[in-house]
Amino acid sequence: MTMPTTARATAPQILARCRDLVRPALTQAVQRLHPWPAEMAAFSLGWSEVGGTLVPGTHGSHSSHGKGVRQALTVLCAEAAGAPGENAVVGAVAVELIHTFSLLHDDIMDGDETRRQRATVWKAYGTGPAVLAGDALFALAVETLANSRTVHSGAAVRHLASTLNDLVRGQAEDLLFESRPWTGPDAVRPDEYRSMAGHKTGALLGCAAGLGAVLAGAPAPTVDALARAGRHLGVAFQAVDDLLGIWGDPQVTGKPVHNDLRRLKKTYPVLAALATDGPAARHLVALLTSGDPLDDVTARRAARLIEDAGGRSATLTEAHHHLDSARACLDSVSLAPTAVGEILTLLPFLIDRRM
Amino acid sequence: MTMPTTARATAPQILARCRDLVRPALTQAVQRLHPWPAEMAAFSLGWSEVGGTLVPGTHGSHSSHGKGVRQALTVLCAEAAGAPGENAVVGAVAVELIHTFSLLHDDIMDGDETRRQRATVWKAYGTGPAVLAGDALFALAVETLANSRTVHSGAAVRHLASTLNDLVRGQAEDLLFESRPWTGPDAVRPDEYRSMAGHKTGALLGCAAGLGAVLAGAPAPTVDALARAGRHLGVAFQAVDDLLGIWGDPQVTGKPVHNDLRRLKKTYPVLAALATDGPAARHLVALLTSGDPLDDVTARRAARLIEDAGGRSATLTEAHHHLDSARACLDSVSLAPTAVGEILTLLPFLIDRRM
């Protein structure tokens, strides 16, 4: 059956179209690396196993590597700014490379051993090689944009460079949160958490969106509006990640249930719960400060207390607030309606990941 | 006493002039980082101790952080191409940042615990934070060049990006050498070693020289000649480093005597000695394949055998060959004679480091 061209595309259809557009250039870029970092990059992207054996069915479907939201945002934002999506492919490639770089290095720093139900790169290949693979992806992203044959490549590199600095800043803030206390004047405040999330997650989605507009040759206010929309999406995305880190189904997240709680990670639901300073919050503090990583029973109790103190609903509210802000940014400038429609179609799909 | 302006500057004077020109911009760039990576960067640059206390006397003299050869090369190559050295300061800053990034990450990958008689960053601050600090320096270098207000910033970023990819390739090659055998068809050949050194060390000095020319607005043949001169200098530099790694004075290198031998590192003197396949080489193989890291006595014997097999003199010849090639590159295009004179003044100073 042929789909009538007037039918509105569904989120999976939109993501698949953008993936198909970007994937050949992404594959080609990774192949330009030295074979060793290239293998680690392909492993990290979910394309291959340790040793380089291809994962069946990933070519095209990309099923093992998230949904390709970032690359889709770059393509759709170029279209929203009136250019063919093809013009932004080089930006989408750079964004995917930087995303993979940051996962790879963050997993080393955070000591995370699994991601998407597989070993992380440092766990599978060793820390040194994982550092190298991350550096290789970083360098490749910069080179890809710098060498792109477009008059906008200078602006695109500047856009990427400022994102890279934000990413590093966000990761520094996140790592420093670990040694901060749960209560008292030095406790991490929800607004500090928001700033961290803005740098760590917001920056990359902001870059994805902004790069699309830059490569479309959009005027500064359009670039700015789309980049801001992307940043809001990123923070919403992070809020949902925080919910998944506590209440997510391990089958979907690929991580143990209550993973963030066991590891005493300072995420938004916990900080929002603690900020209420009610009986549930005080109970929660007692659990969190009792000692080492939480066991199953304690983690379950802590999750319950966070919910009782309103941390779960506050996080959902936070996510929806940022989605609304993203929509408002899209409304603030004149954009191509079909592409904006597709971006809007993706929004609930981003948030409504299985918990 | 005032120095007459016609007197030819000595190597230390040339290096000091270039350092004084670059240092304010380098300091300013590092200060733009998040305070935590900024502290690690300052530690790595020899400006401060763990905790951030300034090292006395480093402001200006820069004594604890090598000689500043790379930044000098960038400044002098801009002058050789007919522009004021000031034009190239942004490139010199980027090169120093990338140099520091690569030391930082390489020390993690190589497991090196000391550098310049101090703890390496990963040893002093932890592996995760050291990964982060390296990423921060990398991002800062790209941003510094991308945001420089010059018509040449696009070309400069492209130059840097290709260097970054070479650096990663060289480090991958070097790490893979470790698991290769000392003899037989899979042994590392001297020409493979040369290729690795070209990527790992040659690329950065090539970038330092080339960036100076790019930022001076030099025509392509001039950029190319200076970049090639820089690459040859880098390979010569690496050869000398290899000599220092075996026969260097620990007081000067900041590393234990025979350090590279103890760690069974595949450096040029060893590979050149093994390639002779004579009696000394066969003796050497027996020592190298006898087991774990070498003890004092065995390392001393190995050093003697390398010398007997001609590995030490072959490495010196290699260094001088690359110095000659660098001089030939400088002769191949028309350049400002004073600046070329200063570059030539630096050459023996590079090679004749105390052993």
Written account of the structure:
2 copies of one chain form a homodimer. Chain A is mainly α and 355 residues long. Chain A has a single domain, classed as Farnesyl Diphosphate Synthase (Orthogonal Bundle), CATH 1.10.600.10. Chain A has 17 helices and 2 strands. The first copy, chain A, has a two-stranded antiparallel sheet. In chain A, a hairpin with a 2-residue loop joins strand 1 and strand 2. Chain A starts with 10 loop residues before the first helix and ends with a helix. At the A-B interface, helix 5, helix 7 and helix 8 of A face helix 5, helix 7 and helix 8 of B.
Integer count of domains of chain A: 1
Largest sheet of chain A: 2 strands, antiparallel
SSE pattern of chain A: HHHHHEEHHHHHHHHHHHH
User: What does the average pLDDT of chain A come to?
Assistant: 91
CATH architecture grouping of chain A: Orthogonal Bundle
**Order of strands across the biggest sheet of chain A?**
1-2
Bulk shape of chain A: globular
Number of helices of chain A: 17
Query: What name does the CATH topology of chain A carry?
Result: Farnesyl Diphosphate Synthase
| CATH class category label of chain A | Mainly Alpha
Structural class of chain A: mainly alpha
Largest interface: A-B, 42 and 42 residues
Q: What is the subunit organization of this protein?
A: homodimer
Q: Tell me the total number of β-strands of chain A.
A: 2
Report low-confidence residues of chain A grouped into runs of 5 or more: 60-65
Any idea what the radius of gyration of chain A is? 20 Å
What fraction of residues of chain A sit in β-strands?
under 5%
